Every structure is written in C-alpha cells, then in structure tokens.
Amino acid sequence: MRVPYTTELFEEDGQIVALCPELNVSSFGDTIEEALRSVQEAMTLFLGVCQRMGTLETVLEEAGYRREPFAPQRWFYRQPIQINRLEAALA
After folding, report:
1. Domain boundaries of the chain, sorted by first residue
2. Which H or E run contains 20?
3. How would you list the strands of the sheet with 25-29, edge to edge?
4. What is the pTM of this model?
5. Which pLDDT does position 79 carry in this prediction?
C-alpha cells in the first residue's frame, strides 16, 4: 500500500522537527536527513498500527485521503485549489 505525505521541517531548540501535517505525525533529528528518516519511520509505524487495528481506511479518509480509482492500493491526498496565509486580528 502506498500513502503519500508531506513533510514540513522546523528548527526547535537545536533539533530539526519533521511534521506530516496531513496525519499530524512528527519526529525529530539532529540533521535534516536524520529528521526525515525518523518521521518516515514514525509514519510507517503509525500506519502499521492503524492497519493492525482495522482503522487505517477510516483514519486516512477522515484526514482527507481518497483511494486512487484505478489503483486501490494507492491513496492520494486532497489537492487545494488555493492556499492563503491570513492573519486573525485580536482586540
């Protein structure tokens, strides 16, 4: 089964944090490469646990994933038609 995901990298307290925003899974490392390997392992473990529990399909669908119509072992994530960065003003 193939589940694509995005990683966002941040520097926090001298560590590189790698976040998968689609499923809110994160990990960290001392370098970018280490953080990416670590989040890949975390994703594999997370998805494996979901699969063993029988909740994988539900978790993916609730996060915005859909099955590829002609390749049911592949999933795709919803694609935005536009992305905006806005600010909320508080009094």
Report:
1. 8-77
2. strand 15-20
3. 8-12, 15-20, 25-29
4. 0.85
5. 87
